[in-house]
# Entry
Amino acid sequence: MRFNLISKLTLATGVILVVSMACFTWLNIGNLKRLLLEETVTSVDNLSETIVRTTHYQMLDNDLPRAFQMISEAGSQKGIVRIRMISKDGRIVFSTKKGEIGTLVDKKAAACNMCHTGSKPLLHTSSMHRSRIFTAENGAEVLGMAKGIYNEPKCSAAACHFHPSSARILGVLDVIVSLDAMNAQLTEYRNKIILYTFILLALLALCLTFFMVRVVIMPLRQLLAHTEKIAEGDLESSVAVQSGDELGDLAHSFNAMTVTLRQARGELEEWGHTLEVKVEERTRELKQMQAQLIRSEKLASQGELVAGIAHEINNPLTGILVYASLISSDPKLDPELKPDLETIVRETQRCASIVKGLLDFSRETPLQKKPLALEGVMEEALNLVVHQTLFHDIVITKRYAAGLPQVMADHNQIEQVFINLLLNAGQAMTGNGELVITIDLLPGGASLFASIRDTGCGIPEEHLVKIFDPFFTTKDQKGTGLGLSVSFGIIAHHGGKIGVESSVGHGTTFTVILPLPEEE
Ligand SMILES: Nc1ncnc2c1ncn2[C@@H]1O[C@H](COP(=O)(O)OP(=O)(O)O)[C@@H](O)[C@H]1O
Ligand SMILES: [Mg+2]
# Structure
């Protein structure tokens, strides 16, 4: 079972209230009872005194019937249960309850033992001491009070000479009154207090509820609504701070927490975004690397095949060339056949140069590495090509970084790579455009790069994967399709990389990366 705050607080306060009211009532009723008893005892004492005094003369005259009549009159008052007169020897001389007249009272009985406690009776004891409370035959609570009738000179000197002058006490007047009225008063008082307690309890619950709702529940509900909003991801809202107490402090710190959360989420989102970009970048890089790997493997297997064929063809070609040259310089040769033989020699030489290219591509030619300044090699390659008509109308921009370190490479082969790339660029621009050549350190400083950017026709996406393949060309009769594959082989052999970026209609950039020798 779930109790809300109000019920708990009301229950606790209610219990405290009821317990304290019960203690208060118990103490109060005890006090009140004592007061009422004292009052009753005093009035009974007064009545006894009045009876003794008013019957005094009848007694002296021994006019007992009149004295008893007066006692009967007094005994008929409301609340008086019984009045009786008991002689010194314990005999009931008179009683308003006729039946007991003449009977003896036991001195140990409640009416007597108040005075007859020890061997001697206590004379002139206080009125409170002389009273006793007991339950009457009908079950009602009653108060009895005994009053001694003392011997006086008048008594012993009276005409009847009934009592000797030596006797100190002549008898006892015992008045018994009902305590019903007093008990009823007490019950009424108790009931009233119970009623007031309940009214107080209801008022208290009402005030507490009102107070709790205004001061605690409402701010708490606001906080709860705020936390629910936060849980749903709404970090823009805030709680209104209404009080300067602990709940106000809580609202304050909640708002501060929301702001911190908002900032943290912002940072996280930004971070997530950066991560996404980084992942994309890495994926692209990985794809490129994978493509390069595939290309390298493909080229390696093609290289082996090509090298085998080139070797096989090289020997017969040398034979053909030697014998064709011999025959063409033979004086016995019919002069009419000479031009045909020269054609055979020329075409065979062409075949030989293709075979040499193939052997270069398959890395059959051993590297002769020495320290090289890349910008120097580039200048030599440029000198070889720029005089061709193809380059006459091409604007060449060179961006060589100053103080670049040297690479360890084969001069001829690197020059061959640069010539291939420059020629391809010139051919792509068909005599018109801009060539930008950059040589610099790569970020990190472990490698150098040389990039050749042209404003030529560009390479379509589907060709990009094939351009490094041997014999791939788009140049019909003019191209061999060996330039890029040979270049790729050379750069790979140097432990470097060759990359391409192109956009159809805008231009192409080839980048050669060569590692720098590791410093000792
Ligand atoms: N700078 C460039 N611009 C446009 N296409 C190029 C460029 N470089 C190479 N290519 C393409 O790559 C192909 C292969 O080049 P390459 O291996 O040098 O052989 P070839 O030049 O004999 O055709 C070319 O036919 C051409 O289609
Ligand atoms: Mg080429």
